[in-house]
Amino acid sequence: MKWILISIITTVVLAASAALFWLDSQFEEPDARWVHSLAGEMGAASVLAIFAHPDDEQLVTGLLIRANENGGAITRIITSTKGEAGTPLPQISRIEDMGIIRYAEVLKNGYALGVAEQLVWDYPDGGLTDENFDEYVGRLQGQMVTWRPDLIVTFWPDSGFSNHSDHKTAGRAATEAVRRLRETAPDNAPKAIAYILAPRRMMRRFGGETGRVVADNQPAPTHEMPGEGWAKIRGWDIHASQRGYVQKNYGMPPAVVHRLYNKEHYYVLDF
Ligand SMILES: [Zn+2]
Fold first, then answer.
1. Ligand 1 center–CA 53 separation, angstroms
2. CA distances in angstroms from 107 to 47, 78, 124, 151, 220, listed in the order given
3. Residue 135 C-beta-side C-alpha neighbours within 13 Å
4. Distance of CA 9 from the midpoint of ligand 1 (Å)
5. Which pLDDT tens digit goes with each residue over 203-224?
6. Does position 170 have pLDDT exceeding 70, yes or no?
7. Which of the pair, 72 or 237, is modelled with greater confidence?
8. Cβ 144 vs Cβ 178: under 8 Å
9. Helix, strand or coil for residue 169?
10. Beta-strand relationship, 263-270 and 151-155
């Protein structure tokens, strides 16, 4: 009887380990080149992350932390909207105050990540569109002239990590701002753009139709680095109005997801 019990327990443990190993592998991109710090690898002294919403910076915590802790680079974030149209998960404020709450949340998370300066702009959440595109590009360009970043971090314009139109527009505008700056003032222009990519196997298998669209419209990542999952877990506590986001989208809490999804994958465009 004792031996039957032991063999059942052993089988269950082995099956659970195999399942966990398989799940972990769904977040991997085996062909990307492993680096300790992307900013360090690129020799960047100044990094600027350009995103759409408060909490988008959660995708690049590893790059930001390792840029300023290990590589000695200064890091900055532009968040283009206040995220006022986001779904409260859970509701922790009046709905009309969502933009103010999320504005504060991204500032708090940026501070926790060691980010030196942050701007949160006032484009409408869900409204980064073609209508204001040129003005948006010009504003990004102006900020690049002021801050002189060597490395820009943003969304891949064709997939936006989650196929969100604001994400795609932010990526497209950041790319266009760099392109214009390289034409008009090449000495002051960024030297590279790092696009944060979603793990393709995971997206194809578990991301539904959106996941397939994202995976199909992304390039293969050129680099991967540690994602500092602990900082993402902490970040979801800081983003209190979005704390339930990971559970809702992945069916598991951040403490589990970010122990499996513990790397960041980038496609680097190096000029
Ligand atoms: Zn977003």
1. 4
2. 17, 11, 18, 21, 32
3. 9
4. 43
5. 999 889 999 999 999 999 999 9
6. yes
7. 237
8. yes
9. helix
10. unpaired
Ligand 1: distance of its center to the CA of 152 in Å? 17
| 264, 225 contact by CB (below 8 A) | yes
The CA distance from 153 to 268, in Å, is 9
Query: What distance in Å separates the CA atoms of residue 194 and residue 59, rounded to the nearest whole number?
Result: 12
pTM of the model: 0.94
Nearest by Cα to 67 from 176, 172, 149:
149
Q: What is the CA(203)–ligand 1 centre distance, in A?
A: 16
- Residue for token pair 């990540």: 113
Domains of the chain, each with CATH number or no CATH: 42-270 (3.40.50.10320)
**Residue-wise pLDDT tens digits, 183-199:** 998 988 999 999 999 99
Q: How far apart are CA 228 and CA 224, in angstroms?
A: 12
Query: Are the CB atoms for 55 and 108 separated by under 8 Å?
Result: no
**Structure tokens of 239?**
């983003």
Q: 5 C-alpha vs ligand 1 centroid, how far in Å? A: 49
Q: How far apart are CA 145 and CA 188, in angstroms?
A: 7
Residue 40 CA, distance from chain mean position: 18
Mean pLDDT for 226-254 is 95
